[in-house]
Write a structure and sequence with these properties.
Blueprint lengths: L1 H18 L5 H14 L3 H4 L9 H14 L5 H16 L5 H11 L18
Helix pairs in contact: 1-2, 1-5, 2-4, 2-5, 4-5
Length: about 120
């Protein structure tokens, strides 16, 4: 399973780069960090696992929350990176799993995660 997600991570990052969604090298590096932090949560928020989010998932979300608080544009950038990843992976979020993520990881999200997120309105 870990191997599968590692392959998916590489494929998604390559596809995002080739499609021009993250055209600048800095944006690509930023999104690759976001993806690395968000990857452990994919199976949970995508409904692929009935188990609670892993410690690595909660740790990754905490890192993303820290990034989101660095400057006013960070939540929008994180949102866009997650939106790009899920689009490429054709992944839909399970809203009940996303909603419970905050309680299960004992945190408040500083950026949106949903199927209908509009990153242009974040900030």
């Amino acid at each position: 399973m870990v191997r599968l997600f590692s392959c998916l991570a590489s494929l998604v990052l390559l596809t995002v780069l080739l499609c021009g969604s993250a055209t600048a090298a800095g944006e690509y590096n930023y999104c690759s960090k976001v993806f690395g932090d968000f990857l452990p949560c994919i199976s949970y928020v995508g409904g692929l696992s009935n188990q609670d989010p892993t410690g690595k998932c909660c740790q990754g979300i905490r890192k993303l929350n820290g990034r989101a608080k660095q400057n006013g544009e960070a939540p929008k950038k994180i949102c866009q990176c997650i939106e790009d990843m899920t689009y490429v992976m054709n992944l839909a979020f399970v809203s009940s799993q996303v909603a419970s993520l905050q309680d299960k990881c004992n945190l408040n999200l500083s950026f949106p995660i949903s199927n209908a997120m509009d990153c242009s309105k974040v900030g």
